[in-house]
Design a protein that fits this description.
- With 808 residues, this protein is an alpha+beta fold.
- The chain contains 13 helices and 33 strands.
- The protein has 4 domains: 92 residues, no CATH class; 89 residues, Roll (Nuclear Transport Factor 2, Chain: A), CATH 3.10.450; 339 residues, Elastase, domain 1, CATH 3.10.170.10; 178 residues, Jelly Rolls.
- Helix 5 packs across helix 6, helix 10 runs antiparallel to helix 13 and helix 11 crosses helix 12.
- The protein is globular and about 95 Å long.
């Protein structure tokens, strides 16, 4: 069984801030944490904090530098800079130097216009690529590294099996496992790839060796097999399968077909519901020379070009037989009859031409946004500009394998995707055809876009509730944004208000809480939330259309490149915000946060992974610099603002007393007990900042330690909020007698936070806290923070940073 280790540990919004300065272990002198040391080195080089998000096994998934503080690349070539970065900082990824040297440059996606480059480093083992084993390094225009993303399985050990099967035997085994009998004929072998033809398949069967991680410590030699065929219902199936290279057993398989489902689709280029006249216009089929230098139409003058191959597929066999339509231009014009009052099946040439136009139009639009050859786009000829070629979009118009639907299959770069477009029969009138509808075509094409960009092009990264929902939502948004129309599918549904969805994206009530409470429990419904969020951003950045559309479409596409495999919505949120930093110097930061916070994905939101529901934490918070609130008091502890330790001279602790300090990191049994990285700057309030020879040397011992803020005047009116970041760390020798407490003391005393110990290990990871303290309006108050070790022998540490009181 394939194990899916993607439980993300959280700090604040969504990231684990790992110890940056590991010192000693517990009282038995545990080994130092190499990753913590490596992060400390990174922070010194960047000059600002570094965040690390890991999965449940501790594998580094996302490494982010503070905005505008990249790590210098010290190379003029982005591939060299990325390779040098991994070699210098391999411990951040828990790799040794030899492992780091086994990565090869698989792809360079340079975007000088957007001040970014994206370099994919593929982990190899014995010369074989590791499945979902890449690290993607993102660099600014000076080749400074501002983000790196690791797929879940780049850390591998020696395989537990042998490679004894041939590629042909592996393909046959995959076919048997998927219920597809294959009579294989060898076509070609090139480098690691072997291609076969087989009767009954829709495309050549491609076989390549891979290293696949079944479970930690169980890595296998495997073969990746791509097979496409028609099932008994004549529905297209396209599977990526991994089989054991020794016994042929199926280790993993994933459908590559994204299906657009719903009530119905509509017809025509921006048609209206129940239209009765043909409103098409005569437009150019030449294409954008910068995006399509050979134009859209090939030498034959029909609907075959470098970006797309379009024809009807009435008998659902994925071939252009004698009864199919692949129209040629008449007098250099694809101008064919169409009447919306009749069944769309009567207008096959117009259908194919319309789909061909829309797929090419989408190609050029997204090419300008960065979906280029090096970014794994869809083209027959890549003109030497990177990426794998021979993968134009196969467009099957009026496909006979279904109705009231559409789908798009996305194999890896270099293998042809296929779009199947169906007739629609459920509007009570003439049949319509999704081939005429830009929102349907754009939606399906966006599945190809997101699958080729998210996770460094790992292809199978959008298959769970949140990630799959974003795949659907991206599709709705991109089409609607291109069309400046928030309603998807109005024509075929006859519903101009909401179209095929529950709500138009400009009037959707959904929030992140609707995933948590189960209201949104299916990917298309989850997609409505994501599409509505992006539409909010589009309106917030620059109004309906125009500047707002252009800016946000760019941020969405660039954000996909910065989004890790198997992302939560918060991962994609952070990627969009990071893209704005790189492209626009963060000019839209507050508008972006406002839109996300409106949908309860603010700074305090959290989600462990892309499958999480009830574990979601919602938030309406935005960064302090984005709030219209007035700052009453703030302290990041970089300077001394007058906090007093032991203010009543009643404390009993003998070590680990509260102080403002630049803390050392300490660990015990691989648990970070004191975080050496503050949430901003270098100082925080901490219980004994020095590390000592052992983890327990300077922790809280012997009783209670207290620290008190200076006097703070709370406004007499408005809402006053206290926020801060804190942790309460302890080992499993703690009890409920140990505690960490934050209180407000005015004319009365209110305990805001009271955390007690327990017989479990709790690491020193900062979490955001927020409290309404308006009940102290008009008073002068102090913040009192207490930590206590009241249980014999327990290891207790605590810290507080970034205290902020605002009023609005």
């Amino acid at each position: 069984m394939f194990r899916n280790p993607r439980l993300t540990q959280l700090l604040s919004a969504s990231a684990l801030w790992l110890a940056a300065c590991a010192t000693t272990g517990d009282d038995s002198a545990q080994p130092t944490d190499d990753r913590a040391k490596a992060i400390t080195t990174l922070q010194r080089q960047a000059g600002a904090p570094v965040t690390v998000e890991v999965n449940e096994l501790g594998t580094t998934r996302v490494l982010s530098m503070t905005a505008r503080f990249p790590v210098p690349g010290h190379a003029t070539d982005p591939a060299e800079a990325a390779t040098n970065f991994l070699a210098a900082h391999h411990d951040v990824f828990q790799l040794d130097a030899a492992d780091a040297a086994s990565f090869v440059v698989a792809r360079v996606d340079a975007e000088p216009r957007l001040n970014m480059s994206h370099v994919t480093l593929q982990r190899m083992f014995a010369g074989i690529p590791v499945f979902q084993g890449a690290i993607t390094v993102h660099l600014d225009n000076g080749n400074g590294v501002f983000r790196a993303m690791g797929n879940d399985f780049y850390r591998v050990t020696s395989p537990t099996n042998r490679m004894t099967l041939s590629p042909g035997e592996a393909a046959a085994a995959a076919g048997r496992a998927l219920g597809v009998g294959l009579s294989l004929t060898h076509v070609a072998s090139e480098d690691l790839s072997t291609t076969f033809s087989a009767p009954g398949t829709l495309d050549p069967v491609k076989v390549e060796p891979r290293i696949f991680q079944v479970a930690p410590g169980d890595n296998r030699f495997a073969f990746q097999v791509l097979i496409s065929w028609l099932d008994s219902q004549k529905e297209q199936q396209y599977q990526l399968a991994l089989v054991d290279a020794q016994d042929g057993s199926l280790l993993f398989n994933q459908s590559l077909v994204n299906t657009f489902t719903g009530r119905v689709f509509n017809v025509g280029a921006q048609p209206t519901a129940n239209m009765t006249t043909d409103t098409r216009t005569l437009v150019s089929f030449d294409g954008d020379p910068a995006a399509s230098p050979q134009g859209w139409v090939g030498a034959a003058g029909n609907t075959v070009g470098n970006n797309a191959v379009a024809a009807t597929d009435l008998n659902a066999d994925n071939t252009v037989g004698t009864n199919e339509t692949q129209p040629s231009a008449v007098n250099n014009s694809f101008d064919f009859a169409f009447d919306p009052t009749q069944n769309a099946s009567n207008f096959k040439p117009a259908s194919v031409a319309n789909a061909f136009f829309l797929v090419n139009d989408y190609h050029d639009r997204t090419y300008r946004l960065g979906f280029t050859e090096a970014a794994r786009n869809f083209q027959t000829n890549n003109f030497g500009l990177g990426g794998a070629q021979n993968d134009p979009v196969n467009v099957d118009a009026q496909d006979g394998s279904g109705t009231n639907n559409a789908n798009f299959s996305t194999p890896p770069d270099g293998s042809r995707p296929r779009m199947q477009m169906f007739l629609f029969t459920s509007n009570g009138g003439p049949t319509e055809d999704g081939d005429f509808d830009p929102s349907v075509i754009y939606h399906e094409n966006t599945h190809g876009l997101s699958n080729r960009l998210v996770g460094g092009g790992a292809t199978t990264c959008l298959r769970n509730l949140q990630s799959g929902g974003m795949g659907e939502g991206w599709g709705d948004f991109m089409g609607s944004s291109f069309l400046n129309n928030p309603v998807v599918g109005a024509y075929v549904t006859g519903n101009t208000t909401r179209g095929i969805r529950q709500f138009p994206m400009d009037n959707s009530p959904f929030t992140y809480n609707d995933i948590k409470n189960g209201t949104l429990a299916e990917v298309h419904n989850v997609g409505e939330l994501w599409a509505a969020t992006l539409w909010d951003i589009r309106n917030g950045v620059g109004g309906t259309g125009g500047v707002g559309a252009a800016v946000v479409e760019q941020l969405v596409v660039s954000g996909m490149k910065l989004t890790p495999c198997n992302p939560s919505m918060l991962n994609a949120r952070d990627a969009i915000i990071q893209a704005d930093v790189n492209i626009n110097a963060g000019a839209n930061e507050c508008k972006l946060w406002a839109a996300f916070a409106h949908r309860l994905m603010g700074t305090g939101a959290a989600s462990a992974n892309d499958t999480t529901t009830t574990g979601i934490v919602t938030s309406t918070a935005v960064p302090p610099e984005c709030s219209n609130a007035t700052t009453v008091f703030s302290d990041n502890f970089e300077t001394d603002k007058g906090w007093v330790s032991n203010p009543k001279a009643t404390d009993t602790a003998v070590t680990g007393k509260w102080e403002r300090a630049n803390p050392d990191a300490t660990t015990s049994n691989n648990i970070t007990t004191q975080n050496g990285t503050t949430t901003s700057g270098s100082f925080d309030l901490v219980t004994g900042g020095a590390g000592g020879a052992a983890a327990g040397d300077n922790d809280v011992d012997g009783g209670v330690t207290t620290i008190q803020s200076p006097l703070i005047a709370i406004p007499a009116t408005g809402t006053t909020t206290l926020t801060f970041k804190s942790y309460f760390a302890h080992l499993n020798n703690a009890t409920v007698d140990d505690f960490f407490r934050v209180q407000i003391v005015g004319t009365t005393t209110t305990t805001l936070l009271n955390q007690t110990g327990a017989a479990t290990n709790v690491a020193a990871t900062f979490a955001a806290q927020s409290f309404n303290i308006s009940s102290f309006a008009g008073q002068s108050v102090r913040i009192v923070i207490t930590a206590a070790d009241n249980a014999a022998g327990s290891l207790i540490e605590a810290a507080v940073d970034d205290v902020l009181i605002t009023n609005q």
